[in-house]
From TrEMBL:
Bias kind Basic residues: ranges: 346-366
Protein family (similarity comment): Belongs to the sulfatase family.
Segments of this protein annotated with the region Disordered: 315-382
Cofactor: Ca(2+)
Sulfatase N-terminal domain ranges (all copies): 5-172
Organism per entry: Galemys pyrenaicus (Iberian desman)
Name recorded for this polypeptide: Arylsulfatase J
GO molecular function: metal ion binding; sulfuric ester hydrolase activity
InterPro entries per the UniProt record, alphabetical: Alkaline_phosphatase_core_sf, ARSB, Sulfatase_N
Keywords: Calcium, Glycoprotein, Hydrolase, Metal-binding
């Protein structure tokens, strides 16, 4: 299936797609918003850049500084990141130009670790995107603001993405209903002043529908937890993983090689047969090289109990099969909401003039959208 997926609020933004690289397009839109907004009034901007992510593409000029990088994926990745750096700078300049900067907070965050096969690097952390190892769940980030009390410091406390909501609400002097049991905490004093984080644990994930580890069992989980289930949890210094945590190699930087996976054979690891529980002291061993599960069974049991407690609050997984009615071909060539309730489908019959007008409008829309015979990936030469 192929469809158009650029939106302006609730409508497909056909007129906004002028072949502009998306990182630059989003930045231009932010500049327009700031230029027309009253800086005396509050504003929240969530800028979800598509970089850095595959497909690895960037405008040609950003490759100039990276000709020496032999690995083509790493070179493209570096070029994309340079464009993103420029975008963040341009957003910051716009905040200053239009009078927002002195009372603003910029949070830069990512959603997961890098993908080494697509130019990313998590070295010296273990694993990659899509895994529960630190290379998959740790993400780079920073907070920049004139409002920070301690600038230029590194925060080593526990902070999770769910903490941004209560933190930002508090900074904006908003109120959160006390009856709402949020997963997040207000961590502004932790970030700004270096105080201890109110957070003591992070549930990285529990995935009940992921492929079960063949050798996992309730017995291996001391009757507390079925270790066939893919899960990971952090409690203070300790991190526990069960099931199949995913690809577990340590992948050195690829900047100087184009030789394929053999270049890191010395760091490859074969998971022990039958093993479905791992325990690490992440503070002392952030690279997850020393498994302590057999040495500290008491800690393992404590973390398994915490996993079990979290799991009791989980709602049932809803993962419906693909539905052909979602095909953009049936919805004006656009990806978007498609499901209609039965009472919405039963509409009164339209007269001939209305039908003709609708048919003409649909034809015009399809001409603009194109027939979408295949999804083609644009190629931007290096």
């Amino acid at each position: 299936m192929c469809g158009y997926d650029l939106y302006e609020n609730d409508s497909a933004a056909w007129d906004s797609d002028n072949g502009i690289y998306s990182t630059q397009m989003y930045t231009q839109r932010v500049q327009q918003i700031l230029a027309s907004h009253d800086p005396r009034k509050p504003i929240f901007l969530y800028i979800a850049y598509q970089a850095v992510h595959s497909p690895l593409q960037a405008p040609g000029k950003y490759f100039e500084h990276y000709r020496s990088i032999v690995n083509i994926n790493r070179r493209r990745y570096a070029a994309m990141l340079s464009c993103l750096d420029e975008a963040i700078n341009n957003v910051t300049l716009a905040l200053q130009r239009y009078g927002f900067y002195d009372n603003s907070i910029i949070v830069y965050s990512s959603d997961n670790g890098g993908q080494p096969t697509a130019g990313g690097s998590n070295w010296p952390l273990r694993g990659s995107k899509g895994t529960y190892w630190e290379g998959g769940v740790r993400a780079v980030g920073f907070v920049h603001s004139p409002l920070l009390k301690n600038k230029g410091t590194v925060c080593k406390e526990l902070v999770h993405i769910t903490d941004w909501y209560p933190t930002l609400i508090s900074l904006a002097e908003g109120q959160i209903d006390e009856d709402i049991q949020l997963d997040g905490y207000d961590v502004w004093e932790t970030i700004s002043e270096g105080l201890r984080s109110p957070r003591v644990d992070i549930l990285h994930n529990i995935d009940p529908i992921y492929t079960k580890a063949k050798n996992g069992s309730w017995a291996a989980g001391y009757g507390i937890w079925n270790t066939a289930i893919q899960s990971a949890i952090r409690v203070q210094h300790w991190k526990l993983l069960t099931g199949n945590p995913g690809y577990s190699d340590w992948v050195p930087p690829q900047s100087f090689s184009n030789l394929g996976p053999n270049r890191w054979h010395n760091e490859r690891i074969t998971l022990s047969t039958g093993k479905t529980v791992w325990l690490f002291n992440i503070t002392a061993d952030p690279y997850e090289r020393v498994d302590l599960s057999s040495r500290y069974p008491g800690i393992v049991k404590q973390l398994l109990r915490r996993l079990s407690q979290f799991n009791k609050t989980a709602v049932p997984v809803r993962y419906p099969p693909k539905d052909p009615r979602s095909n953009p071909r049936l919805n004006g060539g656009v990806w978007g909401p498609w499901y209609k309730e039965e009472n919405q489908r039963k509409r009164p019959r339209k007269n001939k003039a209305e039908k003709k007008q609708k048919k003409s409008k649909k034809k015009k829309q399809q001409q603009k959208a194109g027939s979408f015979p295949t999804c083609q990936r644009a190629v931007i030469p290096a």
